[in-house]
Protein: Aspartokinase
Organism: Microbacterium maritypicum
Amino acid sequence: MALIVQKYGGSSVADAESIKRVAKRIVDTRRAGHDVVVAVSAMGDTTDELLDLANEVAPIPAPRELDMLLSSGERISMALLAMAIHSMGFEARSFTGSQAGMITDSQHGAARIVDVTPVRLREALDEGAIVIVAGFQGFNRDTRDITTLGRGGSDTTAVALAAALDADVCEIYSDVDGIFTADPRVIPKAQKLDHVSSEEMLELAANGAKVLYIRAVEYARRHGVLIHARSTFSSAEGTYVLGEGMKNPREAEGAVMEEPIVAGVATDFSQAKITVAGVPDVPGKAAEIFKIVAKSGANVDMIVQNVSATGRTDISFTVPKADAAGALKALAGEQTEVGFQNLIHDDQIGKLSVVGAGMRTHSGVSATLFEALSAGGINIEMISTSEIRISVVLRDTDLTEAARTVHTAYGLDGDAEATVHAGTGR
Ligand code: ASP
Ligand code: MG
């Protein structure tokens, strides 16, 4: 008998029918003899709808009240799910984040979990109940207020519960079958991975893969939680995300697996490029520029500086599209102080990343990428690398074709087309 934490995303509990389907799945797990703790997201697009409502009554909703409002979405789904389970003859008890002991810092809208004290959950489990916890929310001890963890935060709730309760596995259910070698909506020949290391998963998530949230993967990595990403719509096994020293539970004892060099290809259409042109080529200018950008709240990703022949240089960087306007405005305000000549905004870029832990020990991985792009006649605008990733910025109109070409070049194409349940990936 195991303790299993299951997380169901908004698309898995979008309506009454889906809630009943999820209830059945939970009851099946219980029938198999396991203790079950469930973290659940708000139904369908509830969170977006609540956000819209808030914006209709106030241009900038008060953060404390916004968290009160948004946290109610998960209270609806948790109670309905518990009712559905009751009606199947099983005992279930729902808990808000604060009842579940999800203690966070006081940052409304982006709170971090600092402690989990699942006393009531343990009691309920000991009494034989199935435990349902509202995802995405917590409680701050100093302010005594309700907080939320940021969009997609229910993944983190699930992983934090799994860590605190020392669960055997944290199953994250969505409308996709697991982690793929690429987004199957972009690359139909993408294959489901049997497992992926958490460091590869972090790079994939940071570079456009949306199946799992970065914070949840980081939390799992730090606390040694085994994640199993799988689909609500099938009983097939999904993908295990393995932390340091963890073994794929599906592998035979003692089997040594040959790891592929490249785990996957990620695509990201969400970035924009800003070029600060004609920057005086003297020490301190990059510091000035990126201090201004940081103060605007923009999150910088790639940076490239050109060589200068004339005593002036161009510095280009990428930021999320939503951050670009703020960064441009901040920079324009300091143009004379910094002494650059002009600003260029380009939001028609796409980013392609190749991720694989095997890059540490194998050479030629980047050559394969550049050859594939060159054969496809695709122009590269920026390049950046980490130990286990190579990323390039391209025209956004080239990204899909480039990703397919590169996916083939690394031998990642599967024989059959991946099944895509017409969902959102959550
Ligand atoms: N309901 C929240 C959101 O839509 C949290 C989640 O789904 O994980 O962002
Ligand atoms: Mg949601």
Q: What stands out?
A: The longest helix spans residues 63-86. The pocket of aspartic acid (ligand 1) is lined by residues 9-10, 41-42, 47, 73, 135-136, 151-154 (CB under 6 Å). The first strand starts at residue 3 and ends at 8.
